[in-house]
Amino acid sequence: MPCVLVVEDDPSIRASLIEILSEHGHTVRSTGDGFGALREVTQGALDAVVLDLGLPDLDGGDALRMIRGISNVPVVVATARDDENEIVRLLNAGADDYLVKPFSGAQLIARLTAVLRRTAAPGPAAGQARAADPMSPVTVGELTVDPLARSAHLAGRELALTRREFDLLAFLARHAGTVVSRRRLLADVWREAYIEDQTIDVHVSALRRKLGERASAPRYLRTVRGVGIKLVAPH
Length: 235
Description:
Elements: E1 3-7, H1 11-23, E2 27-31, H2 34-42, E3 48-52, H3 60-70, E4 75-79, H4 84-93, E5 97-100, H5 105-119, E6 128-129, E7 138-140, E8 143-146, E9 151-154, E10 157-158, H6 163-174, E11 180-181, H7 182-190, H8 197-210, E12 221-224, E13 228-231
Parallel strand pairs: 1-2, 1-3, 3-4, 4-5
Antiparallel strand pairs: 6-7, 7-8, 8-9, 9-10, 11-13, 12-13
Helix pairs in contact: 2-3, 6-7, 6-8
């Protein structure tokens, strides 16, 4: 059963969340502060974190960024602000989803279930074949990416890609259908914490040209504004 960490400083709310999650078959660990959350995350064996942003020792956004610095565990943040800019900021900082207070137990379970489903090992979807072996070829529509051979073909035609363009395309192909944030691209493709914002945009634009599409008329590369980018099979 999934193991969920609840980070909530209010004892009564924390107890209520633990009860709700336990009733729905989750194993629950809990803490009331940000540094406690970091200690729990470093111990591993977590499937998700429910993170309240109103913590006594750390700003919730800072706690989120610290968690992201040591783990890719899915994080659902709870915020009192139903503000688009705030939500976008949290998603860019590494949140996988969010809940606006006050929220019901049903909302919590629905959001958490969706996050666990998205981050679980995916099966093939329509128009794509995804292999469990990260070095096996991946097919999305008419696009085939072979990580082992470091080659990509579109409708049988090999694409002339630079090393970084191929790395970016291969990563997006392995996560086809899923929105990948800039933060994750920096960590897993560039393997750097900070680069110029335009660097990713330049490489995505180059890939679009080689895939025969434009940002105004995307086929494979779909930008989700303020969140990230995903690779999909054309309709």
